[in-house]
Write a structure and sequence with these properties.
four-stranded mixed beta sheet, alpha+beta, 120 residues, 41% helix, elongated
């Protein structure tokens, strides 16, 4: 699972990057065999004006799960990352569960052949 973290926000330093990587491990580690890459982009929309101006854009890619895009806003970087990755964990779980529920049942198990019914 490749992790890419990009930021135009001055608030994202090496310590924050480490925090983001740990949170990714907690939220998505159980799906690491299904996830090919995760891209996290943190931007400061309003600059020094204040307000809920930090934006986290998250893209998760995997062969089985396709592409999942999430976006959230907040003033606090840690709260923003926590909430976005919590949503990401639920989204990936939902996609994986749907794949299990709706996977096709082999015809042989669903409908026995005439020979199987007659015992021959």
């Amino acid at each position: 699972m490749r992790i890419g973290i990009q930021s135009s926000a001055a608030k994202v330093d090496e310590r924050s990057r480490g925090y983001i990587e740990r949170r990714i491990g907690f939220a998505l580690g159980r799906f690491s065999d299904r996830i090919r890459s995760i891209r996290v982009r943190i931007d400061d929309e309003n600059g020094p004006k204040g307000g809920p101006d930090l934006i986290c854009r998250l893209t998760i890619r995997g062969d089985e799960i396709g592409e999942i895009h999430l976006e959230d806003r907040d003033m606090d970087l840690r709260a923003l990352v926590d909430r976005t990755l919590q949503r990401a964990g639920r989204s990936v779980a939902r996609v994986v569960d749907r794949g299990r529920i709706f996977s096709p049942i082999p015809v042989r198990e669903a409908f026995p052949t005439p020979d199987e019914i007659m015992g021959g």
